[in-house]
Design a protein that fits this description.
Blueprint (H helix, E strand, L loop, with lengths): L2 E2 L5 E4 L18 E8 L2 E6 L6 E5 L3 E4 L1 E4 L6 E4 L3 H23 L2 H23 L4 H21 L7 E2 L2 E2 L7 H16 L6 E12 L6 E10 L4 E2 L4 E5 L15 E8 L7 E11 L14 E11 L1 H5 L4 E6 L1 E3 L8 H7 L5 E3 L5 E10 L2 H7 L1 H6 L2 E3 L15 E11 L11 E8 L21 E3 L10 E8 L10 E9 L7 E10 L11 E6 L1 E2 L10 H4 L13 H4 L4 E10 L6 H7 L8 H7 L5 H6 L1 H14 L1 H18 L9 H11 L5 H14 L8 H8 L1 H19 L4 H19 L8 H12 L4 H4 L5 H13 L10 H15 L1 H4 L1 H20 L4 H14 L9 H28 L6 H24 L2 H9 L4 H19 L9 H25 L7 H15 L11 H11 L2 H16 L11 H8 L4 H7 L1 H14 L3 H16 L5 H14 L6 H25 L6 H16 L4 H17 L3 H14 L6 E2 L8 E2 H18 L3 H17 L3 H20 ...
Parallel strand pairs: 15-22, 36-37
Antiparallel strand pairs: 1-3, 2-3, 2-6, 3-4, 4-5, 7-8, 9-10, 11-15, 11-21, 12-13, 12-14, 12-16, 16-17, 18-21, 19-20, 23-26, 23-31, 24-25, 24-27, 27-28, 28-30, 29-31, 32-33, 34-35, 34-37, 35-40, 37-38, 38-39, 39-40, 40-41, 42-43
Helix pairs in contact: 1-2, 1-3, 2-3, 4-29, 11-12, 14-15, 17-19, 17-20, 18-21, 20-23, 21-24, 23-26, 24-27, 26-28, 27-29, 28-29, 28-31, 29-32, 31-32, 31-33, 32-35, 33-35, 33-36, 35-37, 36-37, 36-39, 39-41, 40-41, 41-42, 42-43, 43-44, 44-45, 45-46, 46-47, 52-53, 52-56, 53-56, 53-57, 53-60, 56-57
Length: 1978
């Protein structure tokens, strides 16, 4: 039985558990679990990271931990009872773990590794804490390390800043908001701005001296030197180097490394240097030869200098190589460093080119203890300390130091009877009182231990040597008395013996008889002469002699006159000894009572450092004098005490305050002093007003704090000694003192008055007195003193008065004092504080201090509970709310609206006080209860006041929500803020409902409320979905989801509005929509119904909800592009609103709106998903096209449409799809007119006229067409621009445009263009985006892209897609699958411009464009066998299944792919197939022969190969197979309906023979000599072929065929030959069709034919035994030969869906099914170049080509409405003629040359299997003819096309058809002209007009897009813009002169005489606009 757990509530998983049992919960090691129930060794519970999944798991897998339970019961929260740092560490490491892995995925290696190290370090520290063996100090250090690393990691990972107090996380609910803010700010400042250290230290590591002339030991001395004052700042650091220039004791690091300590900030300047002096130990001369002398001397070697400022900019620890300089003159050695610093180059030079001193230098900052912690290794390894000369900037109490520094300056010596000057060396000894040499007390510097003696360096032959050598004498204090220093002078001989001869000595006493030490400064010492053997061991014999010339008695002239003397400088740095006699006199006042007065007066002149040395002794002296002679010396002692107290205010002695405090507490014994102190203090205060000079009085008041400390301590001592006597007298004295103080404070004075300054001085020190008074007086008494004292201040406040700021400082210190923390005293002080604070805040003065005071006040107002203090706290809150709430809000508004100051510091200051005021406001609001809100709202007497308050507080809340209000990582603070806001808003919404509804409705307040609510919900810090699971859980546990609460409140308030809702429609639609897009299901469920309400009220008001719809659509695009919304939202929006409107009367229009918005969402979501991808791919472009079309066709949002045009344009440019980019920009160009209307600035376009923008667009489009090699389209735009320039007489630009046009023609003829492949792609499955899902497209491939590459590209774009391995149409399971399936195969284009392609003599460069541009239709063929397969002759059963695909728009267009709109399947019979094969081969032969005759071929090989292939194949049974299959009696009997076709086949065979004969004749003419045998063979084989066909003589119709080129030119022979069978005069209409009506008919060029010849010869044979081989006879799309170098292998055949084949033989179907997934059109054996006999209108006439890209008509019209009659080509079903020809009004469109097709033959047995078009096909055979014209392929005129060029004769005729641009509006108004023109030779051949009804229906269903470059009309009717969107000119512009094109309209509109529209009087109707002109000025 499962029993709820009592104590076992929390545990950690010890081992992973798979959870394979029933109800098992999978666990991972380290998970924390909450236990709910227990049963027989199993627990039931959940893992904390996913609390919704509950299950069971074994008890043995869980380690239980103690936990604290909150809210026991169903919603209990379990918190582990462990150290909070451990808890935080654990949860943080869990969060980091997931992010750490993501760093690896992102390849952020640096942070990944650093974080890994920190995580390991934290885990190690965590172990130490958990073990629990650490001392308290160590535990504190460990926790500090942990929190520092946690904060570092959080900062690096952009996580939240954690507020902490003593290493533990702070619960925001447990402390005041102001405290929380201070903690956050403190942690931020600690992180951002480290406090600059005031103390600095220089670390020096001596490494080596590099020099070529070493060989002697060296001594190196470092010291810090002040170049400004020319004195050393530090003692010396001394390193010994061996003969190799490296330290002598490498193992002793303290002898190589030192720390120059206690450098002040003022020492880190440019003129402070590190100076290095180097001495050598050796012979007198560096170049002397070695001699027997072993005596060595210290001699100068070199000097180096480096500035400390250079180290500030260097890296943390750099190695420096210092240049070493030597003196030019040895006597200048003492000042060589000064010369180097001053750069006196003449006095020094480099000691050697390669001499350098290698040292490591590093500046360290902070006090020495901090350095010991941070650089532990440095101190443990050993480092010597080099002290500063003198004390540091801050003297610390307890610091012990007693160092005497002696500098050997210089000497003056006589020659001593020698001819040359002496080499003088000084030897220094220190001797004690007994004359004994003191051991180890003479030091050359730090780094080396002190010695007994010191030897100076020797200057060669110098009787006036300057040494400037400093030595240190660290003599203990107790040994100073009686000690002296002796200096012995010796001459160092350079002779062989090298002896040192003593010739004199000097000495100096260290302490005088009165106890004063040797004064600092320079001393001139007497040199006493002596002999070498003089006995100086007995010091008593010379100590009685005078030692200094300054001390000589006046009568000792003999010694004074001596020339020999010696100068030293001494400097004492001691904390115990003094050189000041006045100080000693004061301390020994009892010995000399008569000197007391003088000593007290002189105390003020003594240096402060001397006073603090003897602070306690001095104070004892003062109070001793006061006790004995208070009457006589009371005032002077008081003044001395004030002087000492003020001395301690100096920063240098600030640290001695604790020394004085300790003295007062422990050593002070003046029990009677308080009376004198009070009396003197009152005396001074009473004289303030009358005193002329206030300086001394101000000093007295400045010392008030310590005076009171002495008074109170003295009184306590007295009370203790007497049992509390004289209490009343004391109280009375204090009251009188405060009365005097209040009196002087109450005086009003001028601002500059000295009394005002005195008042300010007192107020500064007054708060420090409170604590002392509390030691004797009660809290209420002290509070009374303070209240009365502060209350006595002058009430009139002047902003410029300095006293005002001091008052505020005083208040601040009062609030922060111990007195204010007491509840009793706070009640007394609060009114005074509030009054002063309110006055300052109202006048916006001293806001920084006001914020500080308010923060301190509110930090004390705890969140009260039901304790005894509740009434008191509530009363305090009342007072603060009444006084400050409104003022506080106004202050926040003022600060935030204030313009930011220029300086960074000012900005930071404003930011800081804004945050503090905000925290104060939040703290105050959080303390307010229901009662406070009620009182607050009732306090407003009028509605206007309440309205102003609500507007103000809503505005403040909006400011608080701003992202910049708090730093990015202050999430804790933001959540607290939001919690306070939502609580307050819930209170205020009641006031809003009660006071501002119905007749009292106020729109502004309600609008402000809704606006606040919306931005509250949309805050980033409340979007829990973006949080980590643990953070989300914490927020939900503490605050819940505040968005839902606010959403419910919005809904509730909205429901209360009633009819006032109309005021917020449509204004609130956008904001509410933004709220519903927040991914929170509950919030969406609450808010979406509001839209139904809006629709309902709008319907009531205006009968529709167009406003709601427009606003929804406008806002959706922007919001969703920002990343808001998702698929779930779309479904929810749809379902909720559909359910809501079920019973509404306006349900139908509502459903329409919802459907529109839902469809828009689908497209926007797809677009957003695509845009997220980095690279431009087809998916992104396709999605943009889908959205663009949706805005245009369904929503009619022209501005959005134009925006997306430009987005698509940018995408195309990025992908280098220049042709598509041009078509895209053409969409916008089409919306503009050639008018002068002004257009506003939009996107990247400046303000300009419509004409200028259209011109710019034209030029840009032409440029892109040029880059995309689509020059024909560019030419049309050039012409249009040229017409405009010409109409304005702008001949300069006209010339440029004509030149540009000419250059484009040149490029057509000169440059090579690649023909792209086309691929059909099917996207199946629900996982595809909406715009692709279950649709098929045809895509234009990239250059050189073949099927395999294209397929791989598609799979890369859709990495999750599965490539289908067949081409069958998928079934419903694939359509509905939750997956992505791609079906790809190549298709062949069916060109529309047949006239160009069929015309002989047109260069391939021109034809290539028309083969692959403006293609609507594509085809895919699959051969199969139907019925029994004849193994002897497979042609009998070889059928072809042909799939035709019709697109919604032609390619190329605004995209590389377009959707398939219509799919048709037909089957081509074997006979028809044979006809197509022969017909195509005949055409190929004709073309080759023509090229050969016109000498377009440089090589005759292609013709040779083609002839060989056809003749050889025919001889070997090629044509004979057809005869066997179709000319036999059985076939003719069984297929009587094919009689016509059999005749056609026979004619084609005869025609082929005739062409071959002519071809052989041409071949003979051009064949080279070496190929004559082949030609002979061909002729022989041709005769065999003729005989096999039974041809003796060609029939008349064959002889009349156009093969006989009489003039050797195909063009001329076409003109002159007689009409053939295709003309109306022919015996019958022969079903003959040119294969050039299809794409890729003649793709080869002369360069490719030779390479294909071998394939053609080998493949065009009749020997094949299988149908697979027979397929090779059929041309492929890549060439017009029967084979191709791209053809697939014989076993690779095409297939089509099996369900559509109609073949009964399953095995045949399988046999011919494709083995590969996709085949390119170049690889298919049965090529797409075969014409489709069932396509009734394959050849689009020129007008149709223009129409293929025109704007589509209204998509909402049904298909039949769009169809209008037009003339058609010959129908396949009938030969009935209907003479009904129509023309559209689209004159001026580009017309391609007329197409000369053969008329189709009737009675085809091909069967239409199915049509997938939604429109039923209808066939109405029509026939007509037109006057002939043959323009050039790219010729276009603005008003019509005039031509009298002849057309091709022979079997060709021309078909021209036209469709209107907008068929719906113009179909009924056109009339037809019929005519039957007889056939005759000459230039005016009849033109057969052909078009199919199927084609017509397709075209009408699919009105072409408005980006056709084939359709450029004259300037159209300008459509006026809405007034709001156009730019009204400020002044009526003057009338423009009429444009030339308006003056000469007739010249521009050239209409041919034969134009039926003009003949019939049909006026030119401008095409209607495809879009309403809303923002065409964009």
């Amino acid at each position: 039985m499962w029993i709820p757990t009592e104590h076992e509530k929390y545990g950690v998983v010890l081992a992973s558990f798979r959870g394979t049992v029933q109800h098992g919960l999978p666990l991972e090691i380290g998970d924390t679990v909450q236990l709910l129930e227990k049963c027989e060794g199993w627990y039931r519970g959940f893992v904390h990271k996913s609390p919704n999944a509950k299950g069971i798991f074994p008890c043995t897998y869980i380690h239980l931990k103690n936990a604290h339970i909150k809210n026991k019961g169903q919603f209990e929260t379990v918190i582990p009872t462990e150290d909070s740092v451990i808890t935080e560490m654990t949860s943080t490491l869990r969060d980091w773990g997931a992010m750490w892995k993501r760093l690896y995925v992102k390849n952020d290696g640096d942070l990944f590794h650093r974080l890994w190290h920190v995580m390991n370090e934290i885990l190690d520290l965590r172990r130490q804490v958990l073990v629990g063996h650490l001392t308290n100090d160590r535990m504190k250090d460990v926790k500090q390390h942990i929190t520092a690393r946690l904060d570092w990691g959080n900062e690096q990972l952009s996580l939240d800043l954690v507020p902490r107090r003593e290493f533990s996380m702070v619960d925001p609910d447990e402390i005041s908001v102001t405290e929380l803010f201070k903690l956050m700010e403190h942690r931020h400042r600690k992180k951002e701005t480290p406090v600059p250290a005031s103390t600095h230290h220089l670390f020096v590591h001596m490494k080596s001296l590099m020099s070529s002339n070493l060989g002697e030991e060296l001594e190196v001395f470092f010291h810090i030197y002040d170049g400004r004052e020319n004195r050393p700042l530090s003692e010396r650091f001394f390193v010994r180097l061996n003969k190799n220039g490296v330290p002598k004791s490498p193992e002793k690091t303290e002898r190589q490394c030192t720390l120059f300590v206690d450098l002040g900030s003022s020492d880190l300047r440019k003129d402070v240097y590190i100076v290095v002096h180097i001495m050598r130990i050796g012979r007198m001369g560096a170049g002397e030869k070695k001699n027997l002398c072993s005596i060595q001397y210290r001699r100068p070697f070199g000097c180096a200098v480096v500035s400390i400022a250079d180290l500030l900019t260097a890296d943390s620890k750099d190695d420096h190589l210092l240049k070493v300089y030597a003196c030019t003159t040895e006597s200048e050695w003492y000042q060589i460093h000064e010369n180097i610093i001053r750069k006196v180059n003449s006095r020094y030079n480099l000691s050697g080119s390669n001499t350098g001193l290698a040292v490591s230098l590093q500046l360290l900052h902070g006090d020495i203890e901090q350095l010991r912690r941070e650089y532990m290794v440095l101190f443990t390894r050993g480092v010597s300390i080099t002290k500063k000369l003198g004390f540091s900037d801050i003297i610390m109490p307890g610091e012990m130091r007693n160092d005497l520094y002696v500098t050997l300056e210089k000497g003056e010596f006589e020659k001593g009877g020698k001819s040359v000057a002496r080499n003088v060396e000084i030897t220094v000894y220190v001797l004690d009182i007994e004359g004994q040499v003191m051991k180890s007390y003479v030091a050359a510097g730090s780094g080396e231990p002190g010695g007994d003696v010191y030897h100076s360096f020797v200057l060669y032959h110098n009787n006036s040597p300057h040494w400037a050598e400093q030595i240190k004498l660290p003599i203990p204090v107790d040994m100073f008395r009686g000690s002296h220093v002796r200096f012995e002078f010796r001459h160092c001989s350079t002779k062989d013996k090298g002896e040192k001869k003593l010739f004199g000595y000097s000495f100096v006493h260290l302490m005088q008889e009165d106890g004063r030490t040797l004064p600092d400064g320079t001393h001139e010492l007497i040199i006493h002469k002596c002999e070498e053997n003089a006995n100086l061991q007995d010091s008593s014999c010379y100590l009685k002699l005078p030692f200094s010339k300054a001390n000589l008695p006046g009568n000792n002239q003999a010694v004074k006159s001596t020339k020999e003397c010696f100068w030293i400088t001494s400097f004492l740095c001691s904390t115990k000894l003094t050189q000041n006699g006045d100080m000693l006199d004061l301390l020994k006042w009892r010995a000399h009572p008569e000197r007391i007065n003088d000593s007290l007066l002189k105390l003020k002149e003594i240096d402060g450092s001397e006073i603090v040395k003897f602070l306690q002794d001095t104070l004892d002296t003062l109070f001793g004098i006061l006790d004995e002679s208070s009457q006589r010396y009371g005032l002077k002692v008081f003044d001395c005490l004030v002087h000492i107290i003020n001395l301690l205010q100096d920063s240098k002695f600030h640290h001695f305050k604790p020394v004085m405090d300790t003295y007062i507490e422990s050593h002070f014994a003046g029990a009677l002093s308080y009376r004198d102190l009070i009396k003197v203090l009152k005396w001074y205060v009473d004289r303030i007003i009358d005193a002329e000079h206030q300086d001394h009085i101000q000093q007295v008041l400045n010392a008030t704090e310590y005076i009171f400390k002495y008074i109170i301590q003295s009184r306590r001592l007295f009370a203790l000694a007497t049992g509390g006597q004289s209490e009343e007298e004391f109280r009375c004295c204090v009251h009188e003192l405060f009365m005097s103080i209040r009196f002087f404070l109450s005086q009003e004075n001028k601002i500059t008055s000295p009394i005002t300054q005195t008042q300010a001085v007192f107020l500064r020190t007054f708060p420090a007195v409170y604590g002392e008074l509390l030691k004797i007086f009660t809290v209420r008494e002290v509070a009374g003193f303070v209240r009365e004292t502060l209350g006595s201040l002058p009430a009139t406040a002047r902003a410029e008065c300095p006293l005002e700021a001091v008052k505020l400082h005083c208040i601040a210190k009062t609030v922060e004092s111990q007195l204010y923390t007491n509840t009793e005293s706070r009640c007394i002080l609060l009114p005074v504080v509030l009054r002063l604070l309110q006055a300052h805040m109202q006048e916006q003065r001293d806001l920084v201090m006001c914020a500080r005071i308010l923060t301190s006040m509110l930090s004390l107002v705890r969140k009260y509970d039901s304790t005894a203090t509740e009434p008191v706290v509530s009363e305090e809150v009342d007072l603060i709310v009444d006084s400050l709430l409104v003022v506080l809000m106004r202050t926040i508004l003022e600060i935030t609206n204030r313009p930011q100051a220029a300086g960074t510091n000012m900005r930071l200051q404003f930011q800081d006080i804004t945050g503090e005021f905000v925290a104060c406001l939040l703290a105050l609001l959080r303390q307010m209860s229901d009662k406070h809100y009620q009182q607050l709202l009732q306090a407003f007497t009028s509605k206007d006041d309440l309205r102003d308050f609500l507007l103000q507080i809503f505005t403040v809340f909006r400011i608080l929500i701003r992202p910049e209000m708090f730093l990015k990582d202050w999430t804790v603070m933001r959540l607290v803020t939001n919690n306070v806001i939502i609580t307050t808003v819930l209170y205020l919404s009641d006031a809003l409902r009660k006071n501002f509804l119905n007749d009292k409705f106020d729109y502004k307040v309600w609008d402000s409320y809704f606006y606040l609510s919306v931005i509250f919900i949309n805050q980033p810090c409340l979007q829990l979905e973006s949080f980590s699971p643990s953070k989300k859980k914490r927020v939900l546990e503490k605050y819940g989801d505040m968005r839902v609460m606010m959403g419910c409140e919005i809904f509730s308030m909205w429901q209360n509005l009633g009819e006032h809702k109309l005021n917020f429609i449509p204004a609130m639609i956008g904001p509410f929509l933004e709220v519903t897009l927040v991914p929170q299901p509950d919030l969406r469920n609450v808010m979406i119904p509001i839209f139904h309400d809006m629709m309902d009220w709008e319907q009531r008001r205006s009968g529709n909800f167009k406003q709601v719809e427009a606003k929804l659509i406008d806002k959706l695009d922007g919001l969703m592009s920002e990343g808001k919304g998702d698929e779930t939202y779309r479904e929810l929006f749809n379902s909720i609103l559909l359910k809501k409107i079920e019973r509404e009367t306006w349900r139908e229009s509502g459903v329409s709106l919802i459907a529109t918005v839902t469809r828009l969402m689908e497209r926007l979501l797809d677009y957003r998903d695509c845009v997220k991808l980095g690279e431009v791919d087809g998916k992104k472009i396709g999605c943009t096209v889908s959205l663009l079309n949706f805005y245009k066709t369904e929503l009619n949002k022209e501005e959005m449409y134009i925006r997306y045009i430009h987005k698509l344009y940018e995408l195309h440019l990025k992908a280098q799809n220049y042709t598509e980019a041009s078509y895209t920009l053409l969409l916008y160009d089409e919306l503009l007119e050639w008018s002068e209307r002004p257009l506003r600035e939009f996107l990247n376009y400046p303000m300009q006229s419509e004409w200028q923008r259209k011109e710019y667009l034209h030029l840009t489009i032409v440029q892109n067409f040029d880059r995309g090699k689509c020059w024909e389209n560019g030419i049309i735009l050039c012409r249009e621009l040229a017409d405009q320039y010409e109409s304005y007489y702008d001949y300069r630009n006209l010339s440029k445009m004509r030149m540009m046009e000419a250059s484009l023609y040149d490029k057509i003829m000169d440059q090579q263009r690649l023909e792209p492949e086309f691929f059909r792609v099917g996207f199946y499955g629900k996982k595809f985006p909406f715009f692709l899902r279950n649709k098929e497209f045809v895509c234009r491939g990239h250059d050189y892209e073949r099927l395999e590459a294209f397929q791989q590209r598609m799979l890369n774009e859709f990495p999750h897609a599965i490539a289908m391995q067949h081409v069958n149409q998928p079934d419903q399971t694939i359509y509905q699958a939750e997956a992505q399936y791609l079906q790809i195969y190549a298709v062949s284009p069916i060109p529309e411009s047949q006239d160009v392609l069929q015309r002989d003599g047109v260069p391939d460069n021109i034809k290539s464009f028309y083969k692959v541009n403006h293609i609507w239709r594509f085809r895919y063929d699959r051969p199969f066998h139907k019925g029994t397969k004849d193994k002897e002759n497979e042609f009998k059963s070889l059928w072809v299944e042909r799939t035709s695909l019709t697109l919604v728009q032609s390619l190329p267009g605004i995209s590389r792919w377009f959707e398939v709109e219509k799919r048709e399947l037909v089957e081509v019979s074997p006979l028809e197939n044979a006809i197509e094969v022969i017909e195509n081969k005949n055409l190929q032969l004709r073309t080759l022969i023509a090229q050969c005759q016109s000498r377009q071929m440089q090589n005759i090989n292609p013709l040779t190969m083609c002839l060989n292939g056809v003749i050889d194949a025919a001889v070997n049974g090629g044509l004979a197979r057809y005869q066997e299959a179709f000319f036999v009696k059985d076939y003719i009997v069984n297929h009587p309906e094919d009689g016509e076709k059999i005749g056609r086949l026979r004619e084609l065979m005869f025609e082929q023979a005739h062409i071959l004969e002519y071809g052989l004749a041409v071949h003979e003419k051009f064949v080279p000599q070496d190929m004559r045998p082949l030609h002979k063979k061909l002729v022989d084989q041709f005769h065999v072929m003729k005989s096999s066909l039974g041809i003796q003589e060609f029939p008349a119709y064959v002889r009349a065929s156009p093969v006989h080129f009489t003039n050797g030119s195909p063009r001329s022979s076409c003109r002159n030959s007689a009409p053939n069978i295709i003309s109306p005069d022919g015996a019958r209409v022969v079903a003959r069709r040119s294969p050039l009506t299809y794409p890729a008919v003649n793709r080869y060029s002369s360069s490719s034919l030779s390479s294909q010849a071998s394939n053609e010869v080998s493949n065009i044979t009749g020997q094949s035994e299988s149908s697979d081989e027979v397929f090779n006879m059929q041309p492929s799309p890549s060439t017009s030969s029967l084979s191709s170098n791209h053809s697939a292998s014989p076993n690779v055949t095409s297939s089509a869906p099996s369900s559509t084949r109609g073949s009964p033989q399953l095995q045949d179907k399988h046999k011919h099914s494709r083995e590969n997934s996709c085949l390119s059109s170049r690889e298919r054996p049965v090529s797409a170049i075969y014409p489709n006999p069932l396509d009734p209108a394959q050849r689009a006439t020129p007008h149709q080509i223009g129409d293929t890209t025109l704007p589509r008509s209204d998509p909402n019209l049904s298909a039949p409405d769009k169809v209008r009659p037009t003339f058609s080509s010959w129908s396949l079903d009938s030969v009935k003629e209907v003479n009904n020809t129509q023309f559209s009004d689209t004159v001026g469109k580009l017309l391609c040359p007329p197409v000369p097709p053969r008329p189709p033959y009737p009675g085809s047995s091909a069967k239409t299997i199915r049509s997938q078009s939604p429109v039923p096909t209808s066939r109405s055979p029509q026939k007509s003819s037109l006057p002939p014209f043959t323009p050039s392929p790219t010729e276009c005129q603005s008003a019509g096309l005039v031509s009298n060029s002849p057309v091709l004769s022979g079997s060709y005729s021309s078909g021209i058809s036209s469709m209107s641009r907008c068929s719906v509006s113009e179909a009924s108004g056109t009339e037809a002209t019929t005519g039957d023109h007889p056939s005759h030779p000459g230039p005016t051949m009849p033109n057969s007009v052909s078009s199919g009804s199927d084609e017509l229906i397709r075209r009408e269903n699919k009105t072409p897009p408005p980006y056709s470059v084939y359709e450029r009309t004259n300037p159209r009717r300008p459509v006026p813009l809405p007034h709001s969107l156009s730019i009204p000119p400020s002044v009526e512009p003057p009338a423009l002169p009429p444009k030339p094109h308006q003056q000469r309209t007739s010249s521009m509109k050239l209409v041919p005489a034969s134009d039926p529209r003009r003949a019939d009087g049909v006026p030119h109707v401008p095409r209607p606009r495809p879009l309403p002109r809303k923002v065409s000025q964009l």
